[in-house]
Design brief:
It is a single chain. The chain is elongated. Helices cover about 45% and strands about 20% of the residues. The chain folds into 2 domains: about 110 residues; about 120 residues, Immunoglobulin-like. With about 260 residues, it is an alpha+beta fold.
Length: about 260
């Protein structure tokens, strides 16, 4: 998302400059440069099913950039005259809008640092606090049913007394290879290893029911289960662990942060 956002800004500036070199009127330079890049992101969104909030941020930034370029080019044509204060206000507004949109994009995908989170959230330095937001969630009857199901799962887990230890969820990276290893260690309330369990792990975005990465873990014996994953994008994800053992089925969810691969 960051690549398409800032890459599109560079493309708007480049198209606007090239049109000026061939003598196109300033007004049409703004219309064409903003329209071409906006049409490109709309076409891209249809192919890759981008969310509406993502598309709207792109359109706002691209059209704002085209407007700023037209205002600046118009002021250059008035030789010997400074830029009027009204265009300065418009340019300042769009610059602020661009910075705010960029900050929202960064926070939504990466969250804020532990230091910044600790300024506003209690005990942020003592335990993980997830400040990223990867999508929108519904506030309707279905959303209420999902929350009820989640609470029932937690209650069932407490009654069973199972001890579930998950390793590898804090070192996730994006990429197109099986670069993420997840291990699950499963014991009952008597600390006896639970064997022959069927464990699936899924990764999906908030508000999206379709898992974008999932696999069944291999039984390594003595209550240990291993698996590898390919996670397509970095940012905030939800990790769901589905455990079927001893005639019971438990689902455990947690927020995870996937870092960009180097």
């Amino acid at each position: 998302m960051v690549e398409t956002l800032f890459g599109g800004v560079v493309l708007v500036v480049l198209i606007h400059w090239l049109l000026g070199r061939v003598g196109i009127a300033n007004f049409w330079r703004g219309v064409i440069s903003g329209g071409v890049v906006s049409s490109a992101i709309l076409s891209y969104s249809l192919i890759n099913e981008l969310s509406l909030d993502t598309v709207s941020i792109h359109l706002a930034v691209f059209l704002s950039t085209a407007t700023i370029m037209s205002l600046l080019a118009g002021s250059e044509n008035k030789s010997g005259k400074g830029l009027h204060w009204i265009p300065k206000i418009f340019i300042g507004f769009f610059v602020v809008l661009f910075v705010v949109d960029g900050a929202f994009v960064s926070i939504s995908t990466q969250g804020v640092s532990t230091y910044i989170a600790s300024l506003f959230l209690p005990r942020a330095k003592e335990k993980p606090v997830y400040t990223a937001f990867s999508g929108v969630t519904e506030h309707n009857e279905q959303a209420a049913n999902a929350e009820r199901h989640h609470l029932m799962q937690l209650s069932s887990l407490r009654e069973l007394g199972w001890v579930i230890k998950i390793d590898g969820a804090n070192q996730l990276v994006s990429g197109n290879k099986l670069t993420n290893a997840i291990s699950v260690e499963l014991h009952d309330k008597a600390n006896i290893a639970i064997e022959n369990a069927v464990i699936h792990v899924q990764f999906f975005r908030a508000g999206n029911v379709e898992a974008l990465a999932q696999t069944r873990l291999d039984d390594a014996g003595k209550g240990n289960y291993l698996g590898q994953f390919t996670i397509p994008d970095n940012g905030s994800w939800i990790m769901r662990t589905i455990i079927e053992a001893e005639g019971k089925r438990i689902e455990v969810e947690r927020d995870v942060i996937v870092k960009a691969s180097v």
